Amino acid sequence: MSLQSVRDFLSAHAPDLQIVQKPTSTATVAEAARAHGVEPAQIAKTLSLRLNEEVILMVMSGDAKIHNQKFKARFNAKAKLLCTEEVVELTGHPVGGVCPFGLPSPLRVYADQTLRKFDAVILAAGATNATVRIAPDRIVQLVHAEWIDVAQTPQGNGNGA
Question: What is the pLDDT of residue 50?
Answer without folding.
Answer: 95
